[in-house]
Amino acid sequence: MEHSDVYNLMYDHAEFYRPPREEHSAFLEVAYGCSWGSCAFCDFIKDEYKVYSLKDISRKAQLLSQVIGEKTRIHFLGCNPLGLPTDFLLDVFMLTRRYLPQVSEYSMYARSDDVLSKSEAELAALKRAGLTDVHVGIESGADEVLAMHSKGETAQQMLDACLALEKAGIACHISLIPGLGGRSLSKLHAEKTAELLSKIHPASVWCIGLAVWEGTPLADMIRSGSFDHMDYREMLEELRYMVSLTEMEGPDCTFTDSSVLGLYTVEGKLPSGKADLLHVFDQLLAAYPVAPSEVLYDGPSVIG
Ligand code: SF4
Asked: Is 18 part of any domain?
């Protein structure tokens, strides 16, 4: 069978946001969509949430064994698989080992309340079973911004979730959304997000500037005038302000923004590379006195 045929059989949802850390991972669908499914900006809220049965996941793992090659790491697909019961996740780890014995590391997305729903003992059990990395959609450190988009979580929960993962020895990767506060909450969004960042020690920070997807509540908010959408240059100004305010300590984390000006990916290290990042942002702001009229950023990655 051609690899493309295997991918078609294996994935119901072949598009997702692939974190930079997962560039070399194989992907296994465990769930489809998000159990929360209510964030105003999210293009996945249109998907009906479902969890695959162990039988379905076994079939997908068997298919994956035909295309996985030398990869030893699996990223579970679904918007927040960590919210699934711990016993179920442990069973999934076990069955993937049956078909993919070379796999030694697992990662997945989570909401912060998914992390907080796990006890210390459960996080420890998942870590022992091979869970090395969790990607938490933080989006903003400002409660006002989170509430505006019906994120259903507070900045305190975000902080507690990151600290719980840190305590469990599981690498915590976070995503942020420049522009999420619109013009009216931009300053607060930058300041509160920098404050949150300065209290945690993520393994990576991934920024994706706010994109507007048709059919989302955000698109309606913009049409009705209740959300003042920023252009990519304004988002870069906000990002620069946010990074300038960070006072992170401890080991470096990787910082990536894959939508700078809608054209570029900027990577650096925080805290040690903060001055370098600010310099790059300043150069880009000088090179683009107005926002580019055409952008290249085109949303989620396609697998396969
Ligand atoms: S929690 Fe994440 S995946 Fe779920 S609706 Fe919100 S942004 Fe989308």
From this structure: yes
| Ligand 1 geometric centre to CA of 42 (Å) | 6
Residue 76, domain extent: 3-289
The CB density around residue 182, as the number of other CB atoms within 10 Å, is 21
pTM (two decimals): 0.95
In residues, how long is the chain? Answer: 304
The answer to whether the CB of 277 falls within 8 A of the CB of 243 is yes
Asked if residue 195 lies in contact with residue 159, where contact means CB atoms within 8 angstroms, the answer is no
Mean pLDDT of residues grouped by 10 in the chain (304 residues)? Answer: 84 83 94 96 93 96 94 96 98 94 96 98 98 98 98 98 98 98 98 98 96 93 96 97 97 95 95 98 97 74 57
| Ligand 1 near 207 CB (within 6 A) | no
Q: Where residue 75 sits, what CATH number does that domain have?
A: 3.20.20.70
Answer whether residue 248 is part of any domain. Answer: yes
| Closest ligand 1 atom, residue 151 Cα | 6
